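Sample 1 of the test manifest.
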Amino acid sequence: MKPVNVGLIGLGTVGGGVVRILKEHHEDFLRDQGVDIRLVAAASTSREQAVALGIEDIYHSDGYEVIHNPEVDVVIELVGGTGIALKFVTAALEAGKRVVTANKAIMATAGHQLLETAGSKGLELAFEASVGGGIPIIGALRNSLIGNRIESVIGIVNGTTNYMLARILDGLPYAEALAEAQQLGFAEADPTADVEGHDAAAKIAILTTLAFNTEVVLEQVYTEGITRVTPTDLAVASSLGYAVKLLAIANRTPEGIEMRVHPTMLPVAHPLSSVNGVMNAIYVVGDAVGETMFYGAGAGAGPAASAVVGDLIEVAQRLTYNNRRPYIRFGTEQLPLKPIEDVITRYYLRLNVPDRAGIVATTAAAFAEQGVSISSLQQAAGDGQTAELVYVTHSAREGALRATLAAIEASGVLVAEPVVIRVME
Amino acid sequence: MKPVNVGLIGLGTVGGGVVRILKEHHEDFLRDQGVDIRLVAAASTSREQAVALGIEDIYHSDGYEVIHNPEVDVVIELVGGTGIALKFVTAALEAGKRVVTANKAIMATAGHQLLETAGSKGLELAFEASVGGGIPIIGALRNSLIGNRIESVIGIVNGTTNYMLARILDGLPYAEALAEAQQLGFAEADPTADVEGHDAAAKIAILTTLAFNTEVVLEQVYTEGITRVTPTDLAVASSLGYAVKLLAIANRTPEGIEMRVHPTMLPVAHPLSSVNGVMNAIYVVGDAVGETMFYGAGAGAGPAASAVVGDLIEVAQRLTYNNRRPYIRFGTEQLPLKPIEDVITRYYLRLNVPDRAGIVATTAAAFAEQGVSISSLQQAAGDGQTAELVYVTHSAREGALRATLAAIEASGVLVAEPVVIRVME
C-alpha cells in the first residue's frame, strides 16, 4: 500500500493533538481504514513545540517548506486567521496538495474560491473542524442528510458567549461575566470576535452554504452580539418560559434565505435551550429527517483534532484508492438572501423610561402606528425616577419593529438605549 | 455517466419515502453528487402500493425478481425482520449486488456474516437506517469520529418506551401508558420488542460493534424492559433530581465491554435527560472529541428514508467512480464482554414490606452482609398494612446487589416483587 504523506503547519494545541492521534492510531488506521498515514513534515514558528512533540527531525520554521516538500501529499493547515493561513492554503492547492483545515475565517470569506481551485484540480479541501469543533456537522450535511431539502440550521456555535449568558442569568453583569470567562480561558484578551457575534457569523455562513447549496460569505450575515444583554433581560425571559441564547440562524423562506446571528429567546422545551456551558449544538430541520440536533464541545484541542483526523482519513482513502468522485460541489443553487428588514419574528423590548403618567400610552401608540401587535406589557418600577417597560410583541416585520423603535426614540422618552431580543417559537 | 440502477424491495411507508426522494431529487443528485440514480425495479406483496406510488411499470410481486434482474446494481431491502429479509440480503450479496438496508434485526444477529460476505466480494452493505432513524450515528462512528478511542455509547434508541416513561411520570400506570401509546400508533399491538427492551438491545449491539470494533450480537446484550416501572418510582426519582430513561449502554472498561439495556436514573443535567417524547438520542464519549450527542426522530417514514438515501448516494458514488477502498471493516479487536454481575453502578431499590417494626433493620443488614453501602433510605407508609422502603446505594457490584436482594427475598419480608433501577452519575 502506498503511504499517504502528511505535512502539518501549526503545532499549537490542535496540531499537538493531531500528532498524538496519528502516532497512537497509525496501526488502527492501517488495519481498519486501509490507509498508511505518515507525518513527514511539520512547521511552526516555535521549534520548542516540535521538540515537545518529539518531531524535531521533521521540523521546519517555514510553512512553505512543508507545502513544497515533494513528498507531501496532504497539507493540514492549523495556523488560523485570514493572513498567512490563506496564503498557505492557496499555495498548497496550487502545488497540487490536498488540504485539511480547521480555519473558519478563510472558509467563510474565501471558501468558494478555494473550493473552486481545489475542484478544478481534482483535489480535496476538507474543513469539518471549522464549525462546531468535533461535532460532525459538515459530514452530516454533505453526506448523511443529502436526501433532504434542508429547511433550517440553527446553532449555538460559540461556547464563550453561551457560558457568559449562563453567568449573566446567574445575576452577573456583562462585564463581570466577561472577566470570569477570560480568567477561565474561555474568552480571549480581545473578546470582540466572540461577544460581537463575528465568530458565530463565520460559522453560519459556512453552514448556510452547505445546507442550502448557495454561495454566501461572512459579510452577508446580519450580526448582533451579546454586549447589551443584562441580568434583568435574562430573568424576565426566564419568567416567561424562555432561555436566551446567541443563535446563528439560517432559514429557508419563500422570499429567500434568512441568515442572522443575535441573542434569541427560545422556549425552554426547545432542544437548544438545554445546551449549557461552553458546549455547542447545531439543530437542523430537513423535509425528510425532521428535527435533528448535533451536540458536543465546540472548541479545544481534542475536539478539533478529532475532526481534522476524521477529514484526513477520508482524504487519505480517496488518495489511496484513487477515488475520483466529485469531492464537494455546492453553490449550484443561487438563492436570494432575505434582507433583515423583511424577517418576521416576535420581539422582546425593554425600554428604560421616566416614571411618569402617559409613557405607556406614548410608547404603545408607536407600536400601533407601525401595525406591530403587542402580546404583553410588564412595567417595573426602577429607581423612583425611571421605570422599565417590557414589551413582547406578536410576529412582526423587523422593518416595522425598527420604525416603532425609531418613533419611540424620537419622542424623547428613552433614558437609556433600548434592549431588543428576538423571540423564537 | 453510467447510471446506477436501483431495485427496491418493500414499498411500505419507508419505501414510499425513498421512491419520492429519488424522484424529487434526481436532478440534484446528478448535478451535485455526481450520480445518476434510477429506480428500475420494485417488489412488494401489494401491487396497490406500487400503483399508489406511480411505479406499477417496474412492479414485481417477488423480491427475487428484483435481485436477479441483471440491470439492478443496488438492492434496497425494506422488508424488515429476520425471515425472508435475511434471505433477500444474502441472495443479493451472492448475486453481486450492493445492498442498503434499514434492518436492525438482521444486522444485530447476522451482521458479521453479511458484512464478511459483502467484504469478500468487494460489495457495500450499508445500514445507517438500522439505528436511530435519520440520525447519522453510523456515519459518525465510521467516519467523522474515527480518530477517537470511543469510551462510551449511551442511547435512547426506542421512542415508544421514551414516550411511555414520560406518561408514567405524569401518573399513568404502565398499562394505561401502553394503551395510549398503542392508540397513538407509537406502540404495536404486540409491544414486546419495545417494552422488553429487545429493540434497543439490537441497536446497541450494532453500535457496540462499530464503536469498539469488536464482534457482538443481540443475544449478548443484558436486557431489562420497562414493564415493572411505576409512577411511584418515577416520582421518587424526580424528587431526587433524576430522570428515568430506558438506556442502551455500551462502556469500555479495563475488564471488557459492558453492554446492557435497562431503565436508568440519570441526573437531570445530563444531555440525555431532556430527550423527550418519541425522540431518540445517542450520546458518545471519545477520548479526543469528548462528549457528543446526536438527536433526532428515531422512527417514521421520513427519517428512515433520509438515512436510506444518504447510504444509497454513498454506494452510488463508489460504484460510479470505481472506488475500491475497503468499505467497512470491523471486529478486528476481539474485546472481552464484561458479565452483568461485574458491572459497578449505583442502584435504586423499592421494597414493598409489611408495616411493622424491625423491617428496616432486617433489610439493612442484608446490604451490610454483601458490602453494599447505602446512600439513602426513605420510608413511606402504604395502605396501613404495608410500607415502601426506597433505598439508593453507593456504587456496588451487580453481583453483590443481587445477593442482597436474594437475602431480603429469602427473609420473607417482601409482599411484592422489588423494583430495581440502576443509577448513572
